[in-house]
Design brief:
The protein is of the alpha+beta class. The chain has one domain (4-237). The protein is 31% helix and 21% strand. The protein has helices at residues 9-12, 39-42, 134-162, 192-196, 200-208, 212-221, 225-237, and strands at 4-6, 16-17, 31-33, 48-52, 59-64, 94-98, 106-111, 117-118, 123-124, 166-173, 182-190. A hairpin with a 7-residue loop joins strand 6 and strand 7 (106-111).
Length: 239
């Protein structure tokens, strides 16, 4: 269980962090939120689709890492075997949180229960004098960059939604274990027809915002469903 608390010199002066590619903590999350900026690189491995937040109505890009709920086919062991991983996977055990809903001030938090936290080995977060280490400064800057990219992602999704490019579609797949096909619902794709019917003005705006690489990468990523099906078939054989 995670125990996330604000980072402080009083409690964490001697804490060190190690690096780990053990992403098994995501083993039950088959849809992993990603950032718009990383979509063109992630498509080399994962199908990228959009899902809708039922409470806010906001769209979120996600990498599909499993066909069935609560089974992430990439994170069933502590060995990550894909050539690329989402940026968010590398944040732990640090995170940032707003100090208030209205303001922009943030604090750095740490998951004290993470296996990457120890006093024995790794990179120190603070110096003996209680100052931030260069390592912590770099990690904090990386977290702030991710937070900024998250805001950019929200803006990208809102723009696509405003242009009516995100359309609800059903993905249908066939696994070796069953004669029946499986339908994956609740996903949204950038619709080719809607994209082709954009006015010249809207298409130019899409290009000027630098969104065309993201649009085309998302469409190309759907070809990775065959990779995911193969991983599911292999997973089923081992059960």
């Amino acid at each position: 269980m995670a125990k996330i608390v604000p980072l402080s010199t009083e409690k964490h002066l001697n804490i060190k962090l190690t690096h780990s590619n053990d992403f098994s903590r995501f083993s039950k999350e088959h849809l992993i939120p990603v950032l718009a900026r990383e979509i063109p690189s992630l498509v080399a491995e994962f199908p990228i689709v959009f899902v809708k937040n039922g409470e806010t109505g906001q769209f979120i890009p996600v990498a599909i890492m499993g066909i069935e709920p609560e089974v992430n086919l990439y994170c069933q062991s502590n060995q990550w075997d894909a050539p690329i991983s989402p940026i968010g996977f590398s944040n732990a055990p640090l995170s940032i949180a707003r100090t208030s809903e209205e303001g922009d001030n943030v604090i750095v938090c740490i998951d004290e229960e993470s296996p990457m936290v120890s006093e024995a080995e790794g990179n120190r977060l603070f110096t003996d004098e209680g100052e931030r280490s260069e390592y912590l400064t770099a990690r904090t800057n990386a977290l702030l960059d991710v937070a900024a990219m998250h805001q950019q992602t929200q803006a990208v999704c809102q723009f696509l939604a405003d242009k009516n490019l995100l359309v609800s579609q059903q993905l249908t797949i066939k696994l070796e274990r069953s004669e029946q096909k499986i339908n994956i619902n609740g996903v949204y794709l950038i619709d080719d027809k809607a994209l082709n019917e954009l006015s010249d003005e809207d298409f130019l705006e899409l290009r000027k915002k630098g969104l065309l690489p993201i649009v085309y990468a998302h469409r190309a990523s759907l070809n990775q469903m065959s990779r995911l099906i193969a991983k599911q078939n292999q997973f089923d054989k081992l059960q």
